Amino acid sequence: MPEAYIVSAVRTAGGRRGGRLSGWHPVEMAARVLDELVSRVDADPALVEDVILGCVGQAGEQSNNVARNAVLASGLPESVPGTSIDRQCGSSQQAVHFAAQAVMSGTMDVVIAGGVESMTRVPMGSPSILASKAGMGYYQSESINRRYDNVVFSQFMGAEMIAKKYGFSREDLDRYALQSHQRAIAATRAGAFDAEILPLKVRNAEGVETDDLHKVDEGIRFEATLESIGSVKLLEESGVISAANASQICDGATGVMIVNERGLKALGAKPLARIHHMTVIGHDPVIMLEAPLPATERALKKAGMKLDDIDLYEVNEAFAPVPLAWLKALGGDNERLNVNGGAIALGHPLGGSGTKLMTTLVHALGARGKRYGLQTMCEGGGMANVTIIERL
């Protein structure tokens, strides 16, 4: 069976809500990433056979198949198709899986997987909110409510449940949040993100580009302290989750180009990494965010590996209890986890986070001369993807 290789990987620097990327239409952001992926391997754009983009808020500027619209806004020929997928926070990680499966099957040779989310211009929950306002009802049907005793699925409650189940205090979570910022600060100052970030010119409210380049993740709190993080109000008075120990709302676009051996030959490109294994599972939708734990166990078993075989792991920091529970349950090494910081500091552009983490993982393995990397993330509805890659 053909292999699946990553030949280019790029992301925008994250933008805060209402921040330096808020002037960018999400289609335009995604289009610039598509062009950069092609440019980095000096490829004929017509060789791209499909574009698969993850996007959670598929409404407004991100509606009507944002992937196809990004193709039409890019330098790719209109003969290149595009499709948009929603596996919640794992949308663009699933895009990687679909792209890898396509080239491994031999039905395609060159596919771009990526994601985009402008959480400024299309606020989180927009599809459900708009549907509710239009009187179209709620997504939890009667059968779901009967099966789960009328529990309203909530990622915030899931985070509280995980913290309680694994015994994490508010201080534990805040210390982890501080670590995320400290690692992101160190990586930024060392230039660790320079090779993976596509600088974009800041656009004003009218969409006109300025001479100011956005090339540093805007969510990093360079002045963060345990005291400042601990001073942020809890989301629930009796809980342990705050906005400071949870992922940041973020604008951004990300992508990777995935090819097989024929694609490598056609492009004349050298691979950065090989897709070694892919897993996706469903899990309890009430606690919701615990799925990365059994998903990782399954992936390692199927791949014939142990966690000790993995040099670096990216576990999405949707909420601090998630990577902490992952470390505790699996016996992971904190020094290999999210080594350049995570979504608490760098932001979580929902549908774009899968390929954002993958881009960082590919470049971090290369910079450190390491071999295997593992990526996983919790997803709405109680799911998780796991991808294991090998640096080449």
TrEMBL record:
Looking up InterPro entries in the UniProt record yields: Thiolase, Thiolase-like, Thiolase_C, Thiolase_CS, Thiolase_N
Official protein name in the record:
Acetyl-CoA C-acetyltransferase
- Origin organism is Variovorax dokdonensis
SUPFAM superfamilies noted in UniProt: Thiolase-like
The UniProt keyword set, sorted, is:
Acyltransferase, Transferase
State the family it belongs to: Belongs to the thiolase-like superfamily. Thiolase family.
> What sequence ranges are listed for the domain Thiolase N-terminal?
5-261
Q: Per UniProt, what is one Pfam family of this protein? A: Thiolase_N
Residues in domain Thiolase C-terminal? 270-391
Record's superkingdom? Bacteria
